[in-house]
Amino acid sequence: xxxxxxxxxxxxxxxxxxxxxxxxxxxxxxxxxxxxxxxxxxxxxxxxxxxxxxxxxxxxxxxxxxxxxxxxxxxxxxxxxxxxxxxxxxxxxxxxxxxxxxxxxxxxxxxxxxxxxxxxxxxxxxxxxxxxxxxxxxxxxxxx
Length: 144
Hints:
The protein has 144 residues and is mainly α. It is 75% helix and 0% strand.
């Protein structure tokens, strides 16, 4: 078969490409979206948190929830990039992107939520797959 290499399963290639996906997702999320939110003031965290508190009706939680969103988009994204505590960090990022994409869809339609939806599905994919072979999780917690 002339194009057999296209269909041959190569575990090393899968591990390397998954590492690159995880690294790109986490580092881009942190650098482009999260770090400025984390280093912002509590007023910015309050504005971030009101997206969720509008639904649950408890305005006092706006600042802590906004900080958690900033944390998920920065520190959790860095942890995701290096593969440390991958599943919990991917869940935090998934939940944050679920809220963000829902807000964007209601404000600007599906086209305005494109980036948030992309990060939502990437974090969900990473949540289901875990850290992978090239991660700190694999290094520290692998079963012998």
